[in-house]
């Protein structure tokens, strides 16, 4: 069985410092819950521009788009929102159906 190991990036002092700054800036409030009028403590910082596709943005709080506008890249969220809103593909019920109906 293969166990997931923590990506070294998330253990780096640069990321830890930036993560603390982002959480503090937004008063440790989950931004997705806040948009729905609910207060929940943020424990995660989500990359809107996912690191696997945009590694050059991993330490940038805002990203300049080609049209000249800026989009927030790092968003404080609670664990529930991180799993359900930010990464719905990780949910067990959202997995693709098996190719065959065999069950044995």
- Strand proportion, as a percent range, falls in 5-15%
| General form | globular
Alpha-beta content class: alpha+beta
Helical amount among residues, as a percent range? Answer: 25-40%
For the biggest β-sheet, the strand order reads: 1-4
Biggest β-sheet strands, sense, barrel? 2 strands, antiparallel
N-end to C-end Cα span = 20 Å
Number of DSSP E strands? 4
Number of helices: 3
Succession of helices and strands: HHEEEEH
Which blocks of ≥5 consecutive residues have pLDDT under 50? none
Q: What average pLDDT do the residues reach?
A: 86
Please give the radius of gyration in angstroms. Answer: 17 Å
Structure explained in plain terms:
This protein is α+β, with helices and mostly antiparallel strands and 104 residues long. The protein contains three helices and four strands, in the order ααββββα. It has helices at residues 13-25, 31-35, 79-86, and strands at residues 44-47, 62-64, 70-72, 74-77. It has a two-stranded antiparallel sheet with strand order 1-4. A two-stranded antiparallel sheet has the order 2-3. The radius of gyration is 17 Å and the shape is globular. It starts with 12 loop residues before the first helix and ends in an 18-residue tail after the last helix. The model has no long low-confidence stretch (mean pLDDT 86).
